[in-house]
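Regression check, zinc ion case 66:
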Amino acid sequence: MKSKTCYVCGKSITAKNEIGLNRKLLGRNINKFYCYQCLAEQLEIEIEALMAKIEEFKNQGCTLFE
Ligand SMILES: [Zn+2]
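Current build output:
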């Protein structure tokens, strides 16, 4: 699998949940990815809120998350 890096800070993104969250929040066909930190800033929410969203999506049975 092609490695992804954060569009803003260049940090490599390897976690399935991190990639899944990008797709879920920004769209499935995006070509820019953000790490948790930069995604939270982008959306103007706390990282804790992002983590809560992951749990929420997992509970919905979304296959983008593990
Ligand atoms: Zn970043």
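Comparison notes: The chain has a mean pLDDT of 94. Residues 16 and 65 are 6 Å apart (CA to CA). No diff flagged against the previous build.
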